[in-house]
Amino acid sequence: MKKHLILFLFLLSLHQIYAQSRPLFPQMPGMVSYTYRHSFQKDVAATLDTIKALGITDMEFSNLFGQTATDLRKMLDERGMQCSSFGVGYADLQNKLAEVGRNAQTLGAQFVRVAWVPHDGPFTLELAKKTVEDFNRFGKQLKEEYGLTFCYHNHGFEFEPYGKGTLFDYIVQQTNPAYVSFEMDILWTFFPGQDPAALLKKYGNRFKLMHLKDLRKGVKGNLSGGTPVENDVALGTGQIDLPAVLKAASKAGIQHYYIEDESPNIAVQVPQSIAYLKSLKK
User: Fold this and answer.
1) How far apart are the first and last CA of the chain?
2) What CATH number does the domain containing 196 carry?
3) 10-residue block means of pLDDT along the chain (282 residues)?
4) Does some domain include residue 179?
5) In this predicted structure, what is the pLDDT of residue 6?
6) How far apart are CA 268 and CA 17, in angstroms?
7) Alpha carbons 210 and 23: distance in angstroms, whole number
């Protein structure tokens, strides 16, 4: 009996050592084109080379940077890169959804994402109701006519209190899961006072995509949906509990993770963020 106990304890310790050595985030993240927006505006091909040199091959584009979708797809293919998500403006979905759908298909994207609902002043229930109506319509058309999944990227202002939750809760609960999914921007979840990990646990696979970013220590958030770009810091150096978020994201089934760093310090911060993700252990 004593031998069996010793063997059991030995095997348990080995399991714990192995578990602690496994990476928490084994994959390479993707990149949001906005991170390199200034560079992309000057030279698209060279910027793709810079991103590829970091080991990143998965892109979310929210701008064609003067290229056609066909030309951009050719540049990606030549580098063994892909565009998995295509971000557009609200007006594009309202006024030229067919063009959006065709461009997304040409790029090879599976997702079409919008990151802002036009509004003046606080986000209201009336606006949320109109947003739900629009999202269900956009998502249905994109899915049925182009085989694309529509995602809404939260930006902070949607967390206005409503009922026992927020207007973001209202939007998630009132949109059709068959046509409307979500991309969690963890900074724009944390900044207005929400817990990204808790929200992922609450809504699970309604979230398909994620923006990885961190908020400078000491910065106080609000419901404005805006903060100076200098408040974007390298992952692991800010306020967000990234291990907790990544564990919840894995359970929720997030399909694509993208680094988004809006700061002017990306040359230093992006490699630092990648190194941080690689350093995390379970």
Assistant:
1) 32
2) 3.20.20.150
3) 54 54 95 98 98 98 97 98 98 98 98 97 97 98 98 98 97 98 98 98 98 98 97 98 98 98 98 98 92
4) yes
5) 54
6) 33
7) 19
Which tokens is 6 given?
Answer: 């010793």
Residue 245 identity:
V
Whether residue 136 lies inside any domain: the answer is: yes
Three-state secondary structure call for residue 157: helix
Reduce the DSSP state of residue 108 to 3 states and report it.
coil
**pTM check: above 0.90:** yes
Using an 8 Å Cβ cutoff, are 72 and 101 in contact? Answer: no
Spatial CA neighbour of 30 closest among 274, 279, 276 = 274
Asked whether the beta carbons of 223 and 122 are under 8 A apart, the reply is yes
Residue environment code for 43-67, b if the CB has 16+ CB neighbours within 10 A, otherwise e? ebeebbebbbeeebbbbbbbbbbeb
Instruction: Give residue 220's Cα distance to chain centre.
Output: 22
> What is the rounded CA–CA span in Å between residue 103 and residue 86?
8
> CA nearest 184: which of 219, 210, 223, 212?
210
Q: Which residue has the tokens 């249905």?
A: 140
Strands (E), 54-206: 58-61, 82-88, 111-114, 149-153, 161-162, 165-166, 180-185
The DSSP secondary-structure symbol of 143 reads H
Residue 83 forms beta bridges with which residues? 59
